[in-house]
Amino acid sequence: MRTPLVAVVALVFGAVGGAVTASQIHNTNTVTKVVVATPSSTGQTTLPSSDVSAPSAAPMSWAAVARRDGPGVVTIINHLRSQGTDIFGNPVPGGTAEGSGFIINRKGDIVTNNHVVDGANSLEVVFSDGRKTPASLVRADPATDLAVVKVNTSVPAVLRWGDSTSLQPGDPVLAIGSALGEFRNTVTSGVVSALGRTITEPSGTTLHDMIQTDAAINQGNSGGPLLNDRGQVIGVNTAITRGSQQTDPFGLSDQSQVVAEGLGFAIPESTVKNVALRLVQAKPPAVLGVNYHEVSQQESQFYNLPQGAYVLQVVSGSPADKAGIKARDIITAIDGQKLSDTTTLQQIVSDDSPGQTVTLQVWRNGKTLTVKAKLTAKA
Question: Which class is 286-377 in CATH?
C-alpha cells in the first residue's frame, strides 16, 4: 500500500474569540495544530558555491522555472518497517509512503521533511525522468521536521537557494512535488499569503516562522520546494489545512469548526538552509529548550506586551531551565538581536552551535531581566 505524505493542519487563529475576518487571518500570526499523516499499511550559512548555480538576474515565467528546476525535484519512496507479526507469527509488511524532496548539491544530498522518511526500513528516490535509485538517510531533525537523504549516483540538476527574509505577502510562488504520490513533478502556483505563522505538532513540537501560501499543496507534496519567480528555493512545503478552530494563543478559545481552503505552509529557506547544512555535516543543532509562541507586532500592540517569544513551556533540565527561564516569560532579544516578525528565536538559535553561551533579554511581569544560557546539542 502506498500512502502519499503531507502534514495536515487545523488552523488556530490568534484572535480574541468570535469570528475571524479574512484581513485578520492575513495579518495575524497563527498557532496551528498539525496532524502528520501516518501510513496506514560551524557558523557557515551557505552551501559551497560550486554546489549552487548563480541566481537568475530577472524574474522568469513559471514555465521557465518548471523547466529548469523540475529535474532537481524528486519523489521519495519510504519502504516502511514491518508493522509486527500476525496471529500466525508472520511479519506484517510495512507498506510504502511517498513524499517529495529536492537536490541541494552535486554530491547527491536531498532535502525533504522528517515525516517523509520517518519509520523507514529503506528509501528510494525517483528522478523526474523516471530513473530510480536507492537512497540513505544522512540525518533527520524532528524539531524542524527536516531531513537530508543521499543518493550515490549522478544527479540531473541542483536547485538554488533564495532569500526568504525578503518575502512579502503577495509575492508569487511556485510549488513542485509528487501530488498524491503519483502525479510526479506537479507544478502549482500562488502567492505568499502571510509570513511568520506558527504550527504545533501533536507531539508538542512547534515550527515557527512558517510561510503561508495559497499555492495548491496536496498529499505527496511534503518535502518539495517552494520557489520564487527567479527559480530559487524559498521554502519547503510541509503542511496543508483541512479545517480550523478559532483560538487565542494566550488561553481563550472558541471550539467552532470551519472548513479551510487554499492554506498551505512551508518551512522558510532561512531555517532550511542552516539546518540542511548541519545535517549534511552530521552536526546536531543547538537547543535552548523552550516551547513558545511568537508574539507578532500586531499581538504586541493588542495585548500591550513586548514582541518576542512567549514561553509556553520550559523543558526540564534544558539550558533555558538552568538559566531560570519560566513559563509566561517573553524572550525579547538574544545576544543583542531583538526578536521581531522577521527575526525569530528559531532563526537565531539555528545559527548558533551547541556549547555556545548566549545572553537573553527576558521580560517578566513588567521587568526586564538578563540571563545567560549555554546551548546544548539536540539529542
Answer: mainly beta
